[in-house]
Structures are given as C-alpha cells and as structure tokens.
Amino acid sequence: MNRTLVILKPDAVERGLVGEIVGRLEAKGLRLVAGQLRTVDEATAARHYEEHQGKPFYPELLSFITRSPSMVLVVEGPADTWRIVRTLMGPTDPAEAPPGTIRGDLGTVMTENLVHGSDSAQSAAREIAIFFPDLA
After folding, report:
1. Catalytic residue among 116, 117, 128, 132
2. Are 64 and 112 in contact (CB under 8 A)?
3. What are the residue ranges spanned by the domains of the chain?
4. Is 116 known to be catalytic?
C-alpha cells in the first residue's frame, strides 16, 4: 500500500466539511491510517511550506494554515495514492476546478482552497515525517 498526507485546512474545519471530504476519500477506496485535529504551529508550517519561502504569498499562507485547527490525515491506497488524492481535490483555484472535485464542489476562493495533498511520493514521505514522525 502507498501513503500520502492530506490536510483539511482551517476553512474546511470552520465550514464543517471534514466529514464530507473524508467521505469522498473513503468512497474512492482510500483508507485512513492516521488523523489528528490540530492547530498547526508556525515552526511546523514553515517546515511544511519551506519550498514557498521567499514567495510573495508565503506570509499569507502561514497565517492561513496556523489560524485555527486543521484535520491532518495520512491516507493509504494503491500505487500513486498521492495522484488519486490530487485528482479528487481538483485544481488549486476553485473557479477552475471541475464539478465532482472537492474544490470544484465546495471551494470558493483560491487562497482558502480547503485541502492540501502531497504532490509526489517524495513530498508525501517528507510531509508525513513532519506531521506523523512515528509513521515515517
């Protein structure tokens, strides 16, 4: 089995969409391995988003992910589980995300796009180690 990290961001938790989004992951056949409702601290957020340091949107990104609790998950499935999750999520901009995707059906603005999913197997391993070091 293959694993990836999924974060249901503060806007998803605030809007009461955790069950809806987890249901979509499970309906696709993915299995929850670990989950934790937590407010991401700045140090963890900085490690998670290190590739974005220095970009104009970086401060806003950190402010958003640390503002209130997120549901952080590890999901398991077949090869390239990360790719399956990314397809379920849809494009980053909800205005461009097709119906049937999480962002297309539930998202409203690009800066608050409900969910994060690792963008490669390597990113999944790195991100799981940040949030769930016992699983790494």
Report:
1. 116
2. yes
3. 2-135
4. yes
How large is the average pLDDT for residues 108-136? 95
Rounded distance between C-alpha atoms, residue 94 and residue 97, angstroms: 5
Cβ atoms 115, 89 nearer than 8 A: yes
Give me the sheet containing 31-38, strands edge to edge. 31-38, 70-77, 2-8, 115-117
Question: How far is Cα 7 from Cα 115, in angstroms, rounded to an integer?
Answer: 6
| pLDDT reading at 11 higher than 80 | yes
Residue 72: count of CB within 10 angstroms of its CB: 24
Q: What is the pLDDT of residues 38-95, one digit of tens each?
A: 999 999 999 999 999 999 999 999 999 999 999 999 999 999 999 999 999 999 999 9
Domain topology for 2-135 = Alpha-Beta Plaits (3.30.70)
